[in-house]
User: Which sequence fits this backbone?
C-alpha cells in the first residue's frame, strides 16, 4: 500500500475516533441535585456513582446548601431559572407550595412510586387528592442520646417514665454534670429536637395530633399545656448560659463527656461516630408519664426528591427517580447514610449498630411526625414559629406553659379554621 494512502487512512481513523469520542461525550447528560445536607457530600457521591455505573449516560452532581439557607436559596434559584434538576423536598406545606406554584413536575406516572411506597409514605409529598410530586426519600427518628459510661458510673438505669427521667437528671446534676446538653443559641433546635421530640407523649401521638387538626381539641387544652410543661421540667437541667450555645456547642458538650444526655435526631449518628468520643454512647426513647399505656416516638418524614419542572433533562431525571424507588437504592442509602431511614415498603437490614438502635425505638411504640408539619405551616403566624417561641419563652421563664399554649391557640386561630371552631 502506498505511503500516502496509509497516511490518509490513518487520518480518517483518527478523525472517526475523535468524532466518536465527541459523540459519546455529548450523550452524557449532566444533572444537578440540590440538598440541605452539606455533611453528606462523600456519602451521596457513593450512591450517585452506583447509579451512574448502571446508567453511564447520566451523571449527577450533588450541590448542597447550608440548612438554614436552603428554602430561601432554592426559591431564588427557581424564580431565577437556575435551580437544580433534582432537589430535596421538605415534607408537607413547603414542598406543596412549590408544586402549586408550578415549580415541581407531577410524578403520577413514575414507575415504582405507587407500588413501593404506602399512601401514608407518599402523603407528605402529594396533594390532598393524591397527586405525587416527590419520591419519598428519608425519614429520621428522634430520641435521647446518653453517655452509657456515665450512667453506669452513677448507677442510673435507662428511664422508663418521664418522672424517672427527671429524677435521673437531678441525680446527674447533683453529681456535678450537665444533665442535658441542649441549648437555644440556634432556636430551631428547641422547636425540632426538644419540643417536638417530647410532644407526642403528651398530646397522644398521631391520634392526638389529628384531634387538633380536625377541631376536636383546642391548642391550649391540657394536653398542649402538658407538652410545654415538659419543656419547663427540663429547663433547670440545661447548661448554664445555654441561650448563647449553638447546636454544635451543645453537641460538643455531650461529646466531651460534660453532659450526660442530649435530645437529638438520628441524622447526627455519622457526626457523633466521626468525633470518636472516649466513652460508650447510645440512645433511648423519650419516656411517657407514669401510668400512660402507650409511648410515642417522633419518626419524621423528612425529605422527598423532586423534579424541577423547568429541567431540560426530565426523562433522564425520571430514570434516577425511578431508581430511587428500588430496594437497591434503599439499601445503598441505609448503609451510606446511617440515621436516615428508607421509607419504602421493603424492609432494609441496617449495617450500622447505632442506626439499628435508633430504629428499634419504633418497636411497640406509636409513631408520628413533628407536630407542626402537617397543616400548621400554611398560614401566619405558623404553628412552627408559635411552638418554637412558646418553648423558648418557657425555658427563659418568660411564659408559663399555660401562657405558651394560649399563645399557640390564639396565633393559629387567626387563620386556621379548626382552631377557630375547636371544642372548648
Assistant:
Amino acid at each position: 500500500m502506498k505511503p500516502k494512502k496509509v497516511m490518509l487512512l490513518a487520518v480518517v481513523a483518527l478523525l472517526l475516533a475523535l468524532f466518536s469520542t465527541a459523540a459519546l461525550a455529548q450523550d452524557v447528560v449532566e444533572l444537578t441535585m440540590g440538598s440541605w445536607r452539606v455533611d453528606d457530600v462523600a456519602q451521596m457521591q457513593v450512591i450517585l456513582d452506583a447509579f451512574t455505573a448502571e446508567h453511564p449516560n447520566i451523571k449527577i452532581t450533588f450541590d448542597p446548601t447550608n440548612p438554614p439557607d436552603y428554602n430561601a436559596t432554592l426559591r431564588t434559584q427557581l424564580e431565577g431559572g437556575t435551580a437544580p434538576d433534582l432537589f430535596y423536598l421538605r415534607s408537607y406545606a413547603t414542598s406543596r407550595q412549590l408544586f402549586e406554584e408550578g415549580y415541581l413536575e407531577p410524578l403520577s406516572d413514575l414507575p415504582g412510586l405507587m407500588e413501593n411506597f404506602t399512601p401514608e409514605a407518599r402523603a407528605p409529598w402529594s396533594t390532598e387528592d393524591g397527586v405525587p410530586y416527590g419520591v419519598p426519600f428519608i425519614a429520621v427518628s428522634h430520641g435521647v442520646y446518653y453517655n452509657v459510661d456515665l450512667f453506669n458510673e452513677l448507677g442510673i438505669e435507662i428511664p422508663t417514665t418521664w418522672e424517672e427521667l427527671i429524677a435521673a437528671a437531678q441525680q446527674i446534676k447533683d453529681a456535678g454534670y450537665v444533665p442535658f446538653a441542649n441549648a437555644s443559641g440556634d432556636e430551631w433546635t428547641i422547636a425540632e429536637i426538644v419540643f417536638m421530640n417530647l410532644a407526642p407523649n403528651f398530646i397522644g401521638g398521631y391520634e392526638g395530633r389529628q384531634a387538633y387538626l380536625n377541631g376536636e381539641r383546642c391548642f391550649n387544652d391540657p394536653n398542649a399545656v402538658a407538652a410545654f410543661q415538659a419543656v419547663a421540667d427540663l429547663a433547670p437541667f440545661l447548661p448554664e448560659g445555654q441561650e448563647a450555645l449553638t447546636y454544635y456547642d451543645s453537641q460538643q458538650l455531650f461529646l466531651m463527656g460534660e453532659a450526660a444526655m442530649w435530645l437529638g435526631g438520628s441524622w447526627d449518628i455519622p457526626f457523633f461516630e466521626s468525633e470518636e468520643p472516649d466513652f460508650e454512647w447510645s440512645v433511648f426513647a423519650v419516656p411517657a408519664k407514669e401510668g400512660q399505656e402507650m409511648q410515642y416516638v417522633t419518626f419524621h418524614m423528612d425529605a422527598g426528591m423532586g423534579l424541577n419542572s423547568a429541567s431540560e433533562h426530565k426523562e433522564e431525571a425520571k430514570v434516577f427517580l425511578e431508581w430511587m424507588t428500588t430496594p437497591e437504592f434503599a439499601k445503598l442509602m441505609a448503609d451510606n447514610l446511617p440515621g436516615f431511614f428508607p421509607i419504602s415498603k421493603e424492609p432494609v437490614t441496617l449495617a450500622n449498630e447505632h442506626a439499628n438502635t435508633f430504629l428499634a425505638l419504633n418497636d411497640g411504640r406509636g409513631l408520628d411526625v413533628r407536630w407542626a408539619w402537617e397543616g400548621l405551616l400554611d398560614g401566619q403566624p405558623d404553628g412552627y414559629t408559635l411552638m418554637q417561641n412558646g418553648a423558648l419563652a418557657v425555658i427563659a421563664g418568660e411564659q408559663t406553659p399555660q401562657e405558651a399554649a394560649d399563645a399557640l391557640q390564639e396565633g393559629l386561630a387567626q387563620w386556621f379554621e379548626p382552631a377557630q371552631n375547636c371544642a372548648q
Notes: The two ends are 101 Å apart (CA to CA).
